[in-house]
Amino acid sequence: MVKIVFIDPEGKSHEVEAEEGMTLMEAAIRNMVPGIDADCGGACACATCHVYIDPVWLEKIPGLSSRSETEEDMLDFAFDVRENSRLSCQVKIVPEMDGMTVRVPEQQG
């Protein structure tokens, strides 16, 4: 299991255990992390699972900052998109993410 820490919009930490291969969105939904709506169920067809990946992790894990064209298009519908923005449905969990911090924005798309 991989430990992921989600920080909700209120600043509260939610430490979850996730299986390798699932997405950040799946881990958040299974653990009822506030602010992750995932309206499309992980199909990359909305922006309601938008998160900010801690920049330290973007440097640590190759490819984590890479976004597909579809993900880029969907992020156009998100609020307050930043360089470290990702749709959590598009981020597969790997063992190297153990201890990673992810922030949930104040508002979803």
Write out the CATH superfamily name.
Beta-grasp domain
Poorly predicted regions: none
Given the C-alpha coordinates, what overall shape results? globular
What count of domains describes the coordinates? Answer: 1
List the helices and strands and how they pair.
Blueprint: E1 2-7, E2 13-18, H1 24-30, E3 50-53, H2 55-60, H3 69-75, E4 85-87, E5 100-103
Parallel strand pairs: 1-5
Antiparallel strand pairs: 1-2, 3-4, 3-5
Q: Main traits of this protein?
A:
109 residues; alpha+beta; Ubiquitin-like (UB roll); 5-stranded mixed sheet; 3 helices; globular
Task: Characterize the structure shown.
The chain is 18% helix and 21% strand. The chain is of the alpha+beta class. The chain has one domain (2-103): Roll (Ubiquitin-like (UB roll)), CATH 3.10.20. Strands 2-1-5-3-4 form a five-stranded mixed beta sheet. It is globular, with a radius of gyration of 12 Å.
Summarize the structure.
The chain is an alpha+beta fold and 109 residues long. Helices cover 18% and strands 21% of the residues.
